[in-house]
């Protein structure tokens, strides 16, 4: 059965893997791997998983984890650049790290900080750590984020990347039931081209897209 890709809307998709719980399909156009819509969790079940996360700004281990995105993105920002942490989660921390470095921040999370007025603003950079893999409509949502950036602005994404089919079948990342889309390096290259951006891969699991 061919499904519509939630990133590029192509129907040129095929079955990629089944693990006993879910099916995974792969788009031949943009290389996104995705879970069929009818196999996603509902909002109540999803929130129950998110509520188990124990992340906070005073956790040095969590800060080290976030530094994989924070460090290369901060190095590319001018002083005082204003940012948005998209998908900040129940314990916003990346925004705190950027504020400590002199960058005013807004936060948005559809579950824990659902003030959509911040999405009407514009920002010099947008960070999204461990968010992309949760998006039901990544094509629409990532395009919206890109539209909020000026020329030269940065979109920093941290999400683990698909390498090949054999590794995918053994991948712990697909065991989280809230992870429904999986990007590869090729997917980010395709996405950057569609959004009029260029992409860099400065660290493991990190993609930085700059608006042309």
Q: Could you describe the 3D structure shown?
A:
By secondary structure, the protein is of the alpha/beta class. The chain has a single domain, classed as Rossmann fold (3-Layer(aba) Sandwich), CATH 3.40.50.150. It is built from 6 helices and 10 strands; from the N terminus they run E-E-E-H-H-E-H-E-E-H-E-H-E-H-E-E. Strands 5-4-6-7-10-9 form a 6-stranded mixed sheet, sandwiched between helices. A hairpin with a 4-residue loop joins strand 1 and strand 2 (23-27). The relative contact order is 0.17. The model has no long low-confidence stretch (mean pLDDT 97).
Outline of this structure?
The protein contains six helices and ten strands, in the order E-E-E-H-H-E-H-E-E-H-E-H-E-H-E-E.
Please state the average pLDDT score.
Answer: 97
Q: How helical, in percent, are the residues?
A: 25-40%
| Order of strands across the main sheet | 5-4-6-7-10-9
CATH-wise, what's the superfamily?
Vaccinia Virus protein VP39
Just give the CATH class.
Alpha Beta
Proportion of β residues? Answer: 15-25%
What is the CATH-assigned architecture? 3-Layer(aba) Sandwich
CATH topology: Rossmann fold
Number of domains: 1
Total strand count, please?
10
Number of helices: 6
Briefly note the structural class of the backbone: alpha/beta
How far is the first residue's CA from the last residue's CA? 38 Å
User: What Rg is obtained from the alpha carbons, in whole angstroms?
Assistant: 17 Å
For the largest beta-sheet, the strand count, sense and barrel status come to: 6 strands, mixed
The secondary-structure element order is EEEHHEHEEHEHEHEE
Q: Give start-end ranges of low-pLDDT stretches.
A: none
Protein name: Class I SAM-dependent methyltransferase
Organism: Halomonas rhizosphaerae
Pfam families: Methyltransf_23
Keywords: Methyltransferase, Transferase
